[in-house]
Amino acid sequence: MRVFVTGASGYIGGSIAQKLCDSGHQIVGLARSEKKAGLLKERGITPILGTLDESRLLTDATRRADAVINPADVDHAGAVQTLIAAMEKSGKLLIHTSGSSIVADDACGEYASPVVFTEDTYFEPLLSRRPPLTVAYARPGLRRRFGPWSSARQ
Description:
2 domains
């Protein structure tokens, strides 16, 4: 499968791209610099040099892919709208995701937080980012609604 991954040189996008590449998929990754493009190429990922602001580039890459994963910037509405428009009526899969900081800090992409979130980092969501959001986890029957763990089924 040919998968277009935005943020392929970042932490989340890079992990996703590498896992898919290692599983035999053909990965095309968006890179913002020649240096990052070179690093992608070394890992077996086909780089596309550009940014989330380049609608034509995103549209072309999306249309050539079988699926698109967008972990680059959850707050970049223009990129999300472009990806959705490029996939309209195609039946292709779009996965739009981000890290835990989406609910744990108020950076909005403006600064690098000194806090590093891992799977073991406990955090209370910011008041502005609380329900109605429900976070679902991969283990069947287990979910957390920004409070104690519950075994309520979804």
